[in-house]
Amino acid sequence: MAWLLAVVLSAVAAGCYAKDLDFPAGFKFGAATASYQVEGAWNVSDKGVNIWDKFVHDNPSVIKDLSNGDVACDSYHNWERDIEMAAELGLDYYRLSLSWARILPTGLPNKISEDGVKYYNNLIDGLVAKGIDCMVTIYHWDLPLPLQELGGWTNPLIADWFEDYARVVYTLFGDRVKLWLTINEPIVVCDATYNSGVTAPGYLSPDLGAYICNKHVLLAHAKAWRLYDKEFRSKFNGRVSLANHLLWIEAASDKYEDLAELARQNAVGRYSHPIFSKEGGWPPGIEEAIAKACIEKGYPKSNFPSFTLEEIELVRGTYDYYGMNHYTSRLIRDALPGENLTVWPFGDCPDLHGKMETAENWSESVVYWFYLNPEGIRKQMAWLKQQYGDLEIMITENGMPTYAGLNDTTRIDFYKSYLEQVLLSIKEDGVNVTHYTAWTLMDNFEWGDGYTTKFGLYEVDFEDPKRTRTPRESAYYYASIIKNHSLDVPANYTDITLS
Ligand code: PNW
Hints:
Layout: H1 2-20, E1 28-32, H2 35-38, H3 51-58, H4 75-89, E2 93-97, H5 100-103, H6 114-129, E3 133-139, H7 145-148, H8 158-173, E4 179-184, H9 186-196, H10 209-236, E5 239-251, H11 257-276, H12 286-296, H13 309-315, E6 322-334, E7 354-357, E8 363-364, E9 371-372, H14 374-388, E10 393-398, H15 409-427, E11 433-439, E12 458-460, E13 469-471, H16 473-484
Parallel strand pairs: 1-2, 1-11, 2-3, 3-4, 4-5, 5-6, 6-10, 10-11
Antiparallel strand pairs: 6-7, 8-9, 12-13
């Protein structure tokens, strides 16, 4: 009898195990790309020049392999293959971004490019025809040059320019696109750009540019959300948010808990609290901390902009879900006197005198900023829930870099370990996370790293004029997760036919 009990118990255990690895019904899987990183065709027909076109042409040495996105994956011509890959993987949705200057060559709606619109219509129609939903990012870092020349995200008029652009794309594509992201990673658009100068437009403005930009991206997002809400929602019934980059920050030891919380408010709160908190406005402690930092640096007053009451109300509540890009984690401690601090978000936290570290058990990747800490994604989402309430979270990016090669077992391990944590968020923490987006569908122009590091489920041959795409082992693994709606995938998952 004992053997029978053992068999029954192990069957029950196996059953539970399998069930624990299942995703809830209705949970959706996608993969993402961004226009400048994949499209190429930088100067076809009447496309306008954007800040990445100019930045890489003027400063080739800022990109590791001296490359650029002039051709990239040539998705402008290979869109049919891109749709085929999304279908092969069984994606529920594909996240793509729109190139502002491809649609509006001057940046303003006085002229709409027929070719640009045709490209996106082909792509969107092709996806819809295969039953794949579209999640569309309106802005993923490629600002039209004429707008940059007037100050870009530091000019307050950008909120109106962005709203006008948003109206054009909602009108053109809103009948088929039900998930929108206004702006990808405003912390990169503002903090990384103006503090480091290593992203377009390559213009440094320490202690100033990032703060002004911070306020303007929020206003731009809010106007675009309100526009949708007022003029398009009843017709199209879609949902709009933005995609924030969330670096999970923990205290290096107990005595740094307050510092860690302030650092999270600085990294996440500055781009979330005004939108997602009940009260709106800047996150607690941040205005004071930045004012103090400015005075210490010799400025006569804080360079951090305040909000009027009207602006607080304009921005507050402008979301239909929380869009989260998450990759990696850091520990924070007080900086030692005189210790060298690098700038956010790729380095330390100088405004708070915070030094960033990584834990010994977080393994390295091929990219200097990326350490693996799967638990970070779960802790990050628990923090969001605690801060902003029980909102719906969509993971809008998550993935890992490797060098070239089809046998990418480290990427498979990455997806497995991070998705396990997503399941724990759902099942143990009661977090309402409904979408998971792999970054990225295929290798592409990885900004400052050029083509040297690869995040793709599909490998792209950049030597081949056709930019042939080949599925990596991780593509089979991801396809199998999607097919089984579970992390419990058959051992022979590479037997699925992808191409
Ligand atoms: C994201 N960090 O950027 C972007 O949305 C993608 O375009 C990009 O290709 C992808 O991640 C991979 O790098 C990041 O602070 C921005 O560590 C900031 C960080 C990481 C990635």
